[in-house]
Specification:
- The complex is a heterodimer of chains A (about 260) and B (about 210).
- Helix content of chain A is about 35%, strand content about 20%.
- By secondary structure, chain A is an alpha+beta fold.
- Chain A folds into two domains: about 70 residues, Anti-sigma factor, zinc-finger domain (Arc Repressor Mutant, subunit A), CATH 1.10.10.1320; about 160 residues, no CATH class.
- Helices cover about 65% and strands about 0% of the residues of chain B.
- Chain B starts with about 30 loop residues before the first helix and ends with a helix.
- The chains are: A alpha+beta (about 260), B mainly alpha (about 210).
- At the A-B interface, helix 2, helix 4, helix 5 and helix 8 of A face helix 2, helix 3, helix 4, helix 6 and helix 7 of B.
């Protein structure tokens, strides 16, 4: 299978794969350094094919584009994988093989970053959704939330450049929180999630940080019910019945989709 | 648009000429550096990026979409997306030019595929009649050199490699569509796309 996937490098850089194959190859790519190098080289090659057909666009286009960017907000940089320990493999490298659903969640989270969906993030989300629909993890409530037709998404900034994304499904009455680029909690501490019931914080469980600091997708414990948002705090190991520290972040839940 | 001969130089497929390449002239301005400045909101730097890449982007998009108005629209979108996403360029993933061209290709291909969702086989077969847009419109020396090098290297490919690669790249077909069009097994097209690009890479002296 690996050898077969490896031959897809050409079709991959030519954008000639179907979405499902693309998702599969992306996962393979995360674990295959030789493939990644070949993809770089072949992309550089196709770039030359493109340069060979260069045609100067109409001069008026330059004015239009320069005018247009005046009104276009620039996206912030992608949240870098938090490097508390540089020996840790990158986000997709680690999650890709062992916990594909987390990679999927992170992918959805990436897709949701920054207000308007940039084009390729949108594509990623579409691919992820398609992949999710194929997944067999029928037992997985997290999967049901991520793939719910009414899932709504909002994102917020966490300290140190990390990003939090919450996906809420009204029909499932559950929420999934995805953190990208979060540091490990201090020793002896854990991250705890909370539903915000009109100002009262209701525990939604702990984030398991054993998987590493880069990304973490958590099915929040308990129903969303009437919660208007969520918060995240640092608590002593084992968690607390109610928050004992100021939240690192609070996020309002998104409006229900559709 | 002047009609151009097919780039495969029919009849010379077996010809192998060495191609000597210095620095790729189209990357003369350091696009990586410029993108860093663009990411910080520098309009002048973006203007320089625009001047360096709008030609290749427009040419590529037009090669895939054909329609001039749509091609302009997509090119403009691509340039604005570059402005928007400059901070997300990751040098370790490849050159700035490759990043932008990859994005332009993907965008154009997606436009084709969404428009094509309802298209029938007849329409797709008509794609074969198009010739890749090796235009003479541009007067830039760099582009002429680049074009000659690419043409020569395309000639070093087998017919199947060349057809597969050009249909996928310049027409935006999926490998399944290429296979159907050329009446080849899927596996054959997959490998032709890869070994064709590898041969091009070696001929062009591309390094990652």
């Amino acid at each position: 299978m690996t050898a077969d996937l490896h031959t897809l490098t050409g079709a991959y850089v030519l954008h000639a794969l179907s979405d499902a194959e693309l998702a599969e190859f992306d996962r393979h790519l995360a674990d295959c350094d030789a493939c990644a190098l070949e993809v770089r080289e072949l992309s550089a090659t196709t770039q030359r094919l493109g340069a060979a057909v260069a045609v100067t666009p109409p001069p008026a286009m330059r004015d239009r584009v320069m005018r247009q960017i005046e009104t276009v907000r620039q996206e912030p940089p992608d949240v870098p994988p938090y490097r508390a320990d540089s020996a840790r493999p990158g986000l997709f490298g680690r999650l890709g093989s062992s916990l594909p659903r987390l990679a999927l969640a992170a992918c959805l989270a990436a897709a949701a970053l920054g207000g308007g969906l940039a084009f390729w993030q949108y594509q990623q989300a579409e691919d992820a959704r398609e992949q999710a629909q194929l997944a067999e993890a029928a037992n997985d409530e997290m999967m049901r939330v991520l793939t719910a037709t009414d899932v709504a998404v909002s994102s917020g900034d966490l300290p140190d450049g990390a990003t939090g994304t919450v996906l809420v499904s009204a029909s499932e009455d559950r929420a999934v929180f995805v953190a990208a680029g979060m540091a490990d909690p201090p020793p002896g501490m854990v991250y705890q999630l909370w539903f915000d019931d009109g100002g009262t914080m209701r525990s939604a469980g702990l984030m398991d940080s054993s998987g590493g600091p880069s990304a973490n997708a958590v099915l929040m414990e308990g129903p969303v019910a009437d919660a208007a948002g969520m918060g995240i705090t640092v608590e002593p190991d084992g968690g607390s019945p109610e928050p004992t520290s100021d939240p690192l972040a609070v996020m309002a839940f998104p409006e229900a989709a559709g | 648009m002047p009609a151009m001969p097919r780039p495969d130089g029919r009849g010379c497929a077996a010809m192998k000429e060495p191609v000597y390449i210095g620095e790729n002239p189209s990357t003369a301005p350091d696009l990586s550096e410029l993108l860093v400045q663009v990411a910080q909101g520098d309009h002048a730097a973006f203007g320089a990026v625009y001047d360096a890449v709008s030609g290749p982007v427009f040419g590529l998009v037009r090669s895939i979409l054909r329609d001039p108005a749509q091609s302009e629209e997509v090119t403009q979108e691509v340039m604005v997306e570059i402005w928007r996403n400059a901070a997300r360029y990751r040098p370790e993933k490849g050159s700035a030019m490759a990043w932008m061209m990859t994005f332009a290709h993907r965008r154009a291909v997606d436009r084709v595929r969404s428009a094509q969702a309802s298209s029938d086989r007849e329409q797709r077969a008509a794609l074969l009649d198009h010739t890749p847009a090796f235009d003479e419109v541009t007067e830039q020396v760099e582009t002429r050199l680049e074009r000659e090098q690419v043409r020569r290297c395309l000639r070093t490919l087998t017919d199947l490699q060349r057809q597969s690669v050009t249909l996928a790249y310049y027409r935006g077909l999926t490998y399944r569509e290429v296979a159907e069009l050329l009446a080849l097994p899927l596996g054959t097209v997959k490998t032709r796309l890869r070994d064709g690009l590898i041969r091009l890479r070696d001929c062009l002296g591309v390094t990652a």
